[in-house]
Amino acid sequence: xxxxxxxxxxxxxxxxxxxxxxxxxxxxxxxxxxxxxxxxxxxxxxxxxxxxxxxxxxxxxxxxxxxxxxxxxxxxxxxxxxxxxxxxxxxxxxxxxxxxxxxxxxxxxxxxxxxxxxxxxxxxxxxxxxxxxxxxxxxxxxxxxxxxxxxxxxxxxxxxxxxxxxxxxxxxxxxxxxxxxxxxxxxxxxxxxxxxxxxxxxxxxxxxxxxx
Length: 212
Prior knowledge:
- By secondary structure, the protein is α+β, with helices and mostly antiparallel strands.
- It has 2 domains: 2-59, Dna Ligase, domain 1 (2-Layer Sandwich); 71-206, no CATH class.
- Helices cover 61% and strands 9% of the residues.
């Protein structure tokens, strides 16, 4: 059986099983890459096709798995709580990452954003009450400036975390992580959780899973 490998839109190969196994051991092929076997149309993660392949570059150090929670559940709870759960989950994700990368800055940025979010909650509640039920108008002291700062912190948190995740999962744990800027901008932690689910699946297939 021969396989073609794809990463970042580029296709390599075909390679024999022995070649794929050798390239996995050397790090030239990553377990997060996709593979297509001869005679098939489906692209499958390499980790699913070669679960027992040697991967010394990953096995040399084991790190706690990312939070293992369905991404769709994060989205649902975020909608049901008016975004509050998404803020909490950002802190969960970034605090996990700070355990494995103590120099991470994302947690502190997310924490600052969470504080601003909580400070703005009373004003948000009154705005909703006024728009839906005709309640009294609430005056927001420094509302515009706080809103701009909150948005800036949210975006800084997401993109700093994105860069830190890229560095870790493409070097320390080379699992071929690619996070698009547009999805990061709009969905943040929900988008990250989607990829954490994929990473956890790959780590379990590689037998390097370390539940947190």
